[in-house]
Write a structure and sequence with these properties.
By secondary structure, this protein is mostly helical. The chain has one domain. The chain contains 4 helices and no strands. It is elongated, with a radius of gyration of 13 Å.
């Protein structure tokens, strides 16, 4: 598309909702296939706390939401 690919280095704060994050993306962010490249890490097999369990899925959810939005444009 002629756009330079840029990786967004933003981490999702705990208090920020997924909806707020998605609405904060510019159209350029949405069209950037590399927006969350290398930010999703392997999800562990075991967890120490419930909080660590829930937090481990946030980057995957954000990346999947971005990919779904991009694929539907």
């Amino acid at each position: 598309m002629g756009m330079k690919s840029k990786v967004k280095q933003e981490q999702v704060p705990e208090t920020r909702s997924l909806v707020d994050l998605v609405f904060s993306w510019s159209i350029r962010d949405v069209l950037n296939e590399n927006l969350y490249r290398n930010q999703v890490q392997r999800i562990p097999d075991t967890f120490v706390t419930l909080t660590s369990y829930k937090k481990s899925f946030i980057p995957s959810l954000v990346e999947e939401t971005h990919a779904d939005l991009l694929s539907n444009l």
